[in-house]
Write a structure and sequence with these properties.
2 copies of one chain form a homodimer. In chain A, the strands form 3 sheets. Chain A has a 6-stranded parallel beta sheet, with helices on both faces. A 4-stranded parallel beta sheet of chain A has the order 7-6-8-9, with helices on both faces. Chain A has 13 helices and 12 strands. In chain A, strand 3, helix 7 and strand 4 form a beta-alpha-beta unit. In chain A, helix 10 crosses helix 11. Chain A is α/β, with parallel strands linked by helices. At the A-B interface, helix 4, helix 5, strand 2, helix 6 and helix 11 of A face helix 4, helix 5, strand 2, helix 6 and helix 11 of B. Chain A binds a DNA duplex (30 and 30 nucleotides) through helix 2 and helix 4.
DNA sequence: CCAGTTCAGGAAACCGGTGTCATTACATCG
DNA sequence: CGATGTAATGACACCGGTTTCCTGAACTGG
């Protein structure tokens, strides 16, 4: 079937292995070794940066490898190493922007390193979800995995990965693992910033729309917010807090319940932008003008935030940077301390036009 | 360094290879062969569904493999086959929703097949972009790649992939390759549907905001729209057409120019939802009410469409299905006719609240 | 001057699968 | 009945790297 393509002249040293024009004939370690007149082991040493190679030999080989466009085959290398050069990205997340930002960020770091990113969506509510990820890791002999919320918050999964001796980085809003396994965005602090901002505008009666309980971020955001308020002498009565689901529709429903109360809160803090957009809809329906009659703040700075009218004041998470850092942590020498130097990032408030002093 | 883990009793058949509890000791083809008392070649035949194995032998081996939780190592297999079990997803696209939908769709198909999806963002405007993708394909010995617009429309890239003998599927809005390489969404027809809809509401004077020239989709959408209108006796004057850039900001700018004209168009068709959102903003600024004073239609049915107020009438592309089909086409036997049975999908109009008869 | 070290490098086995070709046992045929 | 064919299987090399272990040569130091 496939054409005979045994490397032609074993006796006559040819200048170039492949025709260069494209066809499969990639040079192998054997070609390089033969061309250089050394054993393949020496080439292997150069590839793996072994110090036990004479400088001249190394230079000669590096030049030759470059000339021939030789790159070691990751599959062969992986087979011998009993691992692969793949990193998994495990997610179960409705937020496309988040996922793509993380993966682009991770690839910022990975580009040129010989490592690649394999994506693995999953359903963290299904019973065999841990088994599925485990299989993924074992089968592909992954170098490591990056976990996005909410799977990043799953203790059983982390335990399984530890047992498998698999490197992993959890992206989360709260400290729930050793720092070398963690990228934390300080959601609590950012939510406090929101509280301070609204209070400084003069709002004393604020409605809060939280996220679903299976996200740790929602607790961080909600607590950070209420605690900052109480520090400033404002307590949130129970009926001013609605549990949403991080979805647009839940935002509409929660906001409608909050805005139906009398007196009405003068401002709303939704724990993500989707729900803030829902609050916009509820306000429109009631004929309330934002920001004149109602101030709204979101969280995430999704593209949506600037598309809404009026543009939404929200909290920006440096997501792409988190992706970059996650990959960097997986690539770093785990014994070195700077493996987790970048594990902490800080979100900040982006002020747009959705807030004003209360009427 | 690593513990001695040579399979212990070669004479005494043990019931289980690994301790099962998790550690690396995955069974190999040799373990299976020894346990079954056959040669590894026979096991290999079973793995590859060779018909040259006795039914009894096959059953015995399949049972054993299942008992041992044995799954062939893709790296070893790939090495021997001179290829891999990876599929690349190449994109250069600002639309996160699109990317994630495609990748989730592709993985719907791939799940359980032993194939995995490797993502590869790139910059289609950079000079060495084709070289980059080429390297990606060659190095990973990809089974195939899925190309998203606008890279799917790059002729040089397709040529390179053909030369490399690499399977690929282009996701595009127009017929620009053999059907086994193509998923086409019939954007032209959908745009015509928009035109018919607006005309039927009574609009005779419509503004059009197109996308950037380096996307084929924009041509399809714009032409489909204007041609359908002219079929109904409406011609679009030049000044009613604005070239946007598929971005929110460009939508704002284009819509502002269109709405500054007098008489003002009674409706706007933006070639994607981002720009339609921009049109909303322009209308708000001018104090125009949607849909009472201005009707707006978008394209894509991005999450944004239903978050806007009023909810945006737009065109839904079955993106996840396209992802599923793309993967299916890469997996199908290329000689079989149904390799491209699913290559054609149809978008359809989603009517919401952003359109009304003109005032 | 010679044993002991260190430095460079090589031979062969190995990672876990596949290809090629040979072998065996039986059925079929002239 | 022997020649031939065919189904089922195995032996062995090979894919492109790595590991383990070994060999020489060039330095030490006594």
């Amino acid at each position: 079937m496939t054409a005979n393509r045994k490397a032609a002249g074993a006796d006559r040293k040819s200048t170039q292995i492949s025709t260069g024009s494209g066809r499969a004939g990639q040079a192998t370690i054997n070609d390089i070794a033969r061309l250089a007149g050394v054993s393949k082991k020496t080439v292997s040493r150069v590839i793996n940066r072994s110090p036990l190679v004479h400088e001249d030999t190394r230079d000669k080989l590096l030049t030759l490898m470059h000339e021939q466009g030789y790159v070691p085959d990751p599959q062969a290398r992986g087979l011998a190493f009993r691992r692969s050069f793949l990193i998994g990205l495990v997610y179960d997340n409705p937020n496309a922007q988040y996922i793509v930002n993380i993966q682009n960020g991770a690839l910022d770091t990975l580009r040129g390193s010989g490592f690649e990113l394999v994506v693995h969506p999953c359903d963290s509510k299904s019973a065999d979800f841990v088994a599925g990820v485990r299989q993924f890791v074992v089968q592909l002999k992954l170098h490591g995995v990056i976990l996005l919320p909410p799977v990043s918050e799953d203790a059983a999964l982390a335990a399984a990965l530890n047992e498998l001796d698999c490197r992993y980085v959890r992206i989360a809003s709260v400290q729930l693992d050793a720092p070398e396994h963690l990228i934390v965005s300080n959601d609590r602090e950012a939510a406090a910033e929101v509280a301070d901002y609204l209070e400084s505008l003069g709002h004393r009666d604020i409605g809060l729309i939280t996220g679903p309980r299976n996200y740790r971020s929602t607790l961080e955001r909600a607590e950070g917010f209420t605690q900052a308020l109480s520090k400033r002498g404002i307590t949130m009565p129970k009926q001013r807090i609605e549990e949403g689901g991080y979805t647009f529709e839940s935002g509409v429903a929660s906001a409608e319940r909050l805005l139906a109360q009398s007196p009405r809160p003068t401002a709303l803090f939704a724990c993500n932008d989707e729900m803030a957009a829902g609050a916009y809809k509820a306000a429109y329906r009631l004929g309330l003008k934002i920001p004149e009659q109602l101030s709204v703040v979101g969280f995430d700075d999704s593209p949506l935030a600037s598309r809404l009218w009026p543009p939404l004041t929200t909290v920006r998470l440096p997501i792409r940077e988190m992706g970059r850092n996650a990959a960097a942590m997986l690539m770093a020498d785990p014994t070195s301390a700077d493996a987790y130097r970048h594990s902490n990032v800080s979100p900040h408030l982006v002020t747009r036009d959705s807030c004003q002093p209360p009427p």
